[in-house]
Amino acid sequence: MKRQIHATASVLAALFLATFWTSTLVTELFLSAAAVTEVKQLIAYALMVFVPLMGITAGTGFSMGGKGRHPLLVSKRRRMPFIGINGLLILVPSALFLAVRAKAGQFDGVFYSVQALELIAGAVNLTLIGLNIRDGFQLSRLRHTGQTLPQRKSII
């Protein structure tokens, strides 16, 4: 059951992030300021679902991976701090800042600088999450074919 929750949460989180990124880019490039404002507001509200999804993904992932030493587990474990820090320190504050600025009609240099930062950070997180999903599928295939993942040897 934990694997299903992890897989579902990680795919949904990636879809949310891809939707945020794509809708931002499309509205900024092709639509009106009113559309940008609407998208920014919707993204801010969607964070109430997205942030817990990321927490569930991380929590179930660390729980399932334990202290396993398989290279795919190690890679996934190394990416997670970057994903979390990027999300908590750049993406969430940027999304909230941009929603407030857009609602106030403040589409100035500061708005667009933060928007550029958010798009870059979002692309990085989307890439890292995609790599983690890829590695998760590979780990799942290994389990289904009966291969065991090496675990840390007990001293006792």
Q: Overview of this structure, please?
A:
With 156 residues, this protein is mainly alpha-helical. It is 84% helix and 0% strand. The protein has four helices and no strands. It is elongated, with a radius of gyration of 18 Å. The two termini are 30 Å apart.
List keywords for this structure.
disordered C terminus, 156 residues, elongated, mainly alpha
Number of helices: 4
- Say how many strands there are: 0
Rg calculated over all Cα atoms = 18 Å
Which outline best applies?
elongated
Structural class: mainly alpha
Order of helices and strands, N to C?
Answer: HHHH
Largest sheet: none
What distance separates the N and C termini? 30 Å
The helicity comes to over 70%
Low-confidence stretches: 150-156
User: What's the pLDDT, averaged over the residues?
Assistant: 89
What proportion of the residues form beta strands (DSSP E)? Answer: under 5%
